[in-house]
Amino acid sequence: MSAHVTARIDLGALAHNVRVLKARTDGRKLMVVVKADAYGHGLVKCGQAAVNAGADYLGVALLEEAVALREGNVPGPILAWLNTPNDRFAECIARDIDLGVNSVATLKGISNAAYSVDRIARVHVKVDTGLNRNGVTLADLPELILALSKAEAEGTIKVVGVMSHFAYADEPSNSTIADQIAEFKTAVDLLEAANFELEVKHLANSAATLALPETYFNMVRPGVAAYGVSPGEEVGAATDFDLKPVMTLCAPIALLKKVPAGTGVSYAHQYHTTADTTLALIPAGYADGVPRSATNNGPVLVGGEIRKVAGRVCMDQFVLDVGDLDVQLGDEVVLFGDPERGEPSVEDWAVAAGTISYEIITRIGPRVHREFINNSW
Ligand SMILES: *Cc1c(COP(=O)(O)O)cnc(C)c1O
């Protein structure tokens, strides 16, 4: 069976990006975030490649993701920070997975689980410094600290880290950044005053890692940058930081046919040919992660030129108007990859689809075949 759509994943580019991020942060530890199937790139392969390239930690949202890394035999410290009350804490603790703790209730779940497997759970206190999403507020932190001290004394947990997350890191001059840094320092001080030995203090996501050295503390926690994708226009382009795109999304031409001028193309005929031309059918659609909102807009490299999607993106397919380009049935077209090879970028697709680059890569669906390569950079 040959795959219709292929996401070519360059683990060499990922390794290069890990080295670039590591060098940038000058001796700090590096946690590479591999949640959401490594942003659509393949969890276990990318996690292992990141560790091999020098990542000190892997970070995931869900406990299941951390367990999947261990089941794939990925070694080294792993943190899972997004917990729910019925999560498989015991299984994680038994597998040496660090856990985020955001409340007294979560702490209870974790310490009960640790007791049941007769292990000490390593926890990172997740503090809300102004994102107002996950994390304990500074107002509630003293109560959590009392409960953490008690649990440490009982031998069920050890507080090893503190973390928080920015609301506006992709706007490096936003005034909330200084406020969040100050709140984070207050949280660190409160935890250290309670005598916890914090191995790692981490606040910086990709944008902060690239643009805000004052956020580094002793570990940074980038995700999207490791995949060679910019976290946002204001931070800069991936190439400005020598980051190489890891994913190339391509598909073969499934059908070529000649049609006259004035032909309506795909559902609801949202595109009409303006001359006698050739249409190329591409077997990739929104079920594969090609955004439907890129109808008439998504850029594709075909026959050495960039052409926009002609008409609606459908569930399984879309069409290109290839005019008299020299293309053959089965030729590969590239939706996105490395702009230095003349291919559209993930960022181009984000603009075309009216979304952010993160969504373009993480939505690449399970039907897409991941092909792993290892170029040297
Ligand atoms: C996803 C996530 C990150 C990584 O963010 P990037 O912008 O991809 O670098 C870091 N920390 C937390 C808490 C996250 O949820």
Keywords:
11 helices, elongated, alpha/beta, binds pyridoxal-5'-phosphate, single chain, eight-stranded parallel beta barrel, 377 residues, five-stranded antiparallel β-sheet
Major beta sheet summary: 8 strands, parallel, barrel
Helical fraction equals 25-40%
Mean pLDDT: 97
Give the tally of β-strands: 19
The Rg value, from CA coordinates, equals 23 Å
**pLDDT < 50 runs, ≥5 residues:** none
Any ligands, ions or cofactors bound here, and which? Answer: pyridoxal-5'-phosphate
Note the gap between the termini: 32 Å
Structural class, by secondary structure, is: alpha/beta
Query: What gross morphology would you assign?
Result: elongated
Topology as H/E string?
EHEHHEHEHEHEHEHEHEEEEEEEEEEHHE
Q: State the oligomer.
A: single chain
Count helical runs.
Answer: 11
Strand content: 15-25%
Going across the major beta sheet, what is the strand order?
Answer: 2-3-4-5-6-7-8-9
